[in-house]
Structure formats: structure tokens, C-alpha cells
Design brief:
binds zinc ion; two-stranded antiparallel sheet; three-stranded antiparallel beta sheet
Amino acid sequence: MSRVRDRQERWLHARISEGLEGALKREARRRRQPVSLLVRNVLEGAFDLVEDLMENGLEVARRSQELVRTAGRATLEDVYGWQELILNRPAACAGCDARLRGGDPAYRGLRDRAGPPAFLCPPCVRRLGRPGADREEEAR
Ligand SMILES: [Zn+2]
């Protein structure tokens, strides 16, 4: 056995049906490849495909988690009021994404429906007054 072929390669004997053997031989002839090379390429391709599918699955899971997180942050339309409180545990401001720590003053969004808690930092709550000023200008 040559040293090049010996490199990390192993023989694998597998029992296959006559029909599969015929199909492999026909495909190998069509591709002008030895049957063993065709079988190896097909097997490697199948495992690459499985790996791709698993990576895509993980990517989909990661994206949907991210979507749930950002959706929870983005939907503030149904908040009817902001209640001042002192945080006991860290949170992120839904307005500016500022990191809020335990002991920080914050405002919790109150909604009619149950949902993920939304917090605003004091500067973001002060900014809420601006749309009212715009409406006064429109009324003129
Ligand atoms: Zn903020």
C-alpha cells in the first residue's frame, strides 16, 4: 500500500442490494469515476448536508430567541402608563437599551394584557413629554 493512500484512509465493507450496486455503477460510469470515489463523495456530501442542516437549525433557534427578545422590547404601544420603581434586579431600558442595575430608579410599563415587563430609564420617560408638545403645535 502506498504511503499516500495509507494516510488516514480506512476500508469500509458494506453489504448493499443488487439494485443499489447497479445504480452506483451506472452513476460512476456517467461521472467517469471509480465506484469507490463516488461512494465516498456521496457519503461526505450527506454528512456535510446533515451538518449544514444542524447549523441552520441552531441559527433559526438563535434568531427566533432574538426576535422574541426584541419584540418584547419593541412593543410599547399597548403600555398605558409608566410606574416609577426602584429596580431590584438588572434590566435594560426599552427606549435606549441602557443597562439598568439593581437599585436604579426606573419606570415599568403597565399593560392591559400580560406580557414581558418593559422598563424605561428616567431620561427616556422625560422624553415621553415631547409628543405632547408636537400635538400643541399641530392644534394651532
Ligand atoms: Zn432609556
